[in-house]
Amino acid sequence: MGKRVKAGYIVAIDGPAGAGKSTVSRLLASELQGRLLDTGAMYRSVAYFAVKMHVTTASGFSQIAKKLEFDYEPKNQSLLVNGIEMGQRLRTQSVSSLASKVSAFKGVRQTLTARQRTLAKTWAKSCPVVVEGRDIGTVVFPEVEYKFYVTADPKIRAERRYQQLKKQGAKGVSLKAILKSNIERDKQDSNRKHAPLKCAQDAIVVDTSKMSVNQVVQFMSEHIRGRISLIGD
Ligand code: DC
C-alpha cells in the first residue's frame, strides 16, 4: 500500500458531471486514509430545502445556505446536513437541476465556499482531505499542491450514468435524455458568472474515457505519494 500520507494535505478534484469524479474522490479519500468533502452535496442540500420550503428567490437560497450546518459521517464518508444523512434525497432529478441553478448565485457560493474552507482546514489537521467540486482548484483552494481535473467524453459520461441507473432499477431512463441533461448542466456550470467550472492552470487533467476507476485512483494516489517522498517525507 505504500507510504502513509501525512495530515495537512488537501487534494482538489474538479470536473464536469458524470466523469467519475465522485466515485474516484471517495476511493481516493479511503486510499489516503482521509476524509472526503463532497461540495456538490452542499449545493444539493440548499436545493433540497428550497424545493421543500417552496423557496424560489436568490435571497431565499442564500438564507437557506447560511442556516445549514455540515459535519462528517465517517462510516459512509458522507456529509451530515443539520445532523442528518441525506442520502438519495439529494439525488433526485428536481434537486439536481435546482442545485445547478442555486449554485450560480453569489450569496450561496460565498457562504458555502467559506464553510468548505473551514471544514477542510479543520479536518486536514488530523488527516488528508479530498475536496470534490467544480471550483475547488480555482477558487476554494487555489493554493493547494494536489489538483486534478477529471473529465471524460460526454457520450461516455452519459453511457456510464445510464448503466448506473439501469443497475439501480430505474424505469424509463433514456440515454439521449441523460446526454442532453449533462450537456445542459455543463453549459450552466461553465458559463455562470461566479466561479464557473474550469480547469485550474496547474491541475493535472485526467481523462477517464478509457480508464477504469481503479486506474484513476491508483494514478492519483501514486502521484500524491510520489510527490510527498520527493519533498523528503
Ligand atoms: O457534483 P454534483 O453534481 O453533486 O454538484 C451539484 C451541483 O452543484 C452542480 O450543478 C454544480 C454545483 N457545484 C458547484 O457549483 N460548485 C461546487 N464546488 C460543487 C458543485
Description:
The chain has 233 residues and is an alpha/beta fold. It has a single domain (10-230), classed as Rossmann fold. It is built from nine helices and eight strands. A five-stranded parallel β-sheet has the order 2-6-1-7-8, sandwiched between helices. A hairpin with a 2-residue loop joins strand 4 and strand 5 (84-85). Helix 1 (21-31) packs across helix 9 (213-230), helix 2 packs across helix 3 (58-67) and helix 3 (58-67) packs parallel to helix 5 (106-123). The site of 2'-deoxycytidine-5'-monophosphate has 14 residues, from helix 2, helix 4 and helix 8.
Summarize this entry quickly.
With 233 residues, the protein is α/β, with parallel strands linked by helices. 50% of the residues lie in helices and 15% in strands.
Q: First CA to last CA: what distance?
A: 16 Å
Mean pLDDT over the full residue set = 91
Outline: globular
CATH class: Alpha Beta
Number of helices: 9
CATH topology: Rossmann fold
What number of structural domains do the residues give?
1
Small-molecule binders:
2'-deoxycytidine-5'-monophosphate
| Proportion of beta-strand residues | 5-15%
Give me the secondary-structure topology:
Elements: E1 10-14, H1 21-31, E2 35-38, H2 39-52, H3 58-67, E3 70-73, E4 78-81, E5 84-85, H4 93-102, H5 106-123, E6 129-133, H6 136-140, E7 146-151, H7 154-167, H8 175-191, E8 204-207, H9 213-230
Parallel strand pairs: 1-6, 1-7, 2-6, 7-8
Antiparallel strand pairs: 3-4, 4-5
Bound molecules: 2'-deoxycytidine-5'-monophosphate (DC).
